[in-house]
């Protein structure tokens, strides 16, 4: 299961339309549709915002498990550690297709953000 499948599943659970998600991200609906269909890669600057919208961790966006467990404590921590939109507009695009690599990177990024806030 790829990130596009996860996006579809999460959007279905939240009852948002593709247009509503696209509007929240400030992008065209076709761009979001292409992410769900996995015809284009998600730009890294949108990954934290997607996690925030769906109230999951960044890792959950890339996780290959069929069911994502929602944990309010993790969600609150994610919101506290979120990088502001202004901060990520000059972001780096990272294409991760391997779920293990995504897990490692997500853990490293979360640790880095925690250390930066200290």
Automatic annotation (TrEMBL):
Protein name per its UniProtKB record: HTH cro/C1-type domain-containing protein
Domain called HTH cro/C1-type: residue spans: 7-61
Entry keyword DNA damage: no
Pfam families the UniProt entry points to: HTH_19
Alphabetized SMART domains for the sequence: HTH_XRE
Record keyword Metal-binding present: no
InterPro entries referenced in this protein's UniProt entry, alphabetically: Cro/C1-type_HTH, Lambda_DNA-bd_dom_sf
Keywords on record: DNA-binding
Organism: Chryseobacterium ginsengisoli
